[in-house]
Amino acid sequence: GISEGFVTKSPGKYRAMCRDIYMFDPIAGVAVDVASYMPFGNFTLSGIPDRAVLDTYAACIDALNFVEFLPQITRDALVYGAHVSAMNYSESKRYFNSVIPLHLDDCTITWPMVAGVDPLVDVKLPAQMRATFKASQKDERLSWLADRLPASFEKGMGGGVVKLSPMNTLFLQRRGLSNDNELQSYFNRILMFYLFEKSMMRGTVEGAASRQKPILHVSVGDGLDWIPQQAQLETIGRLFMEADADPMSSIVTTRN
Question: Fewer beta carbons below 10 Å: N end or C end of the chain?
């Protein structure tokens, strides 16, 4: 295609470029922020006559913090092309009481052949998450964490791979073609312009930092009575370099 040789085929590098666009592009990044906040706002639950059932739904929404989390899910789907989270179902409370966002770089996705069926997700928990879980066993401030983690995560805390159950996996994908399983970022169509702009900006910054003034040429000796030695040339050259580095003023004294 037209992007052959320009856009990387590595999923990790591709997502890194998309994140770079979101973080630093003044137009594309703002467009994602607007699109992620616009559909969501405050809401109320109604239409459930049983107060106990209504309270269960309300407690679940509060526990998952969906009011703030929904815009974040949308940004992930727009920037990376998908969002993956693992949810924990509390048997005692009888609702999902936590949601754990996962980075796509840590996930292995197996796509089904049937349309409308979510893929299988295997995840290797990052070192930071394993360190936090280990600290929770000794730090009473994190004692609540054990009740919020899915049971399958215990295997992954030792460095193994966690096979997420489809029943408690939240997977949102921004699809392109029906038979194309590659994740499609919202920035896919501007990647070529991003790469060109980044190359131009890098060249401009490096050029500006390399030299701010013309080269100074110092001619020493008259070619007859005085032919300076190498040590004298180095001394005079260093003299002019030090004088040129003075931001206020500089004086070089010589004998005629």
Answer: C
The C-alpha atoms of residue 138 and residue 162 are separated, in whole angstroms, by 23
Beta strands in the chain (DSSP E): 82-90, 95-102, 107-110, 120-124, 161-163, 169-173
- Whole-model pTM: value is 0.72
Q: How far is CA 11 from CA 106, 131, 168, 182, in A?
A: 11, 26, 25, 9
Helix (H) or strand (E) holding 180: none
d(CA 253, CA 240) in angstroms, rounded, equals 10
Give phi and psi for 152, each to the nearest 5.
-70, -20
**68, 3 Cβ separation under 8 angstroms:** no
Residue written as token pair 């699809």 = 175
Q: What's the Cα-to-Cα distance from 43 to each of 50, 96, 140, 153, rounded to whole Å?
A: 19, 19, 35, 33
**Do 84 and 104 meet the contact criterion of CB atoms below 8 Å apart?**
yes
pLDDT, tens digit, 9 for 90 and up, residues 192-212: 888 888 888 877 776 666 656
Band of residue 84 on the pLDDT scale cut at 50, 70, 90: very high
Q: For the chain, first and last CA: distance in Å?
A: 70
The answer on pLDDT for 3 being more than 60 is no
CB 177, CB 144: distance < 8 Å: no
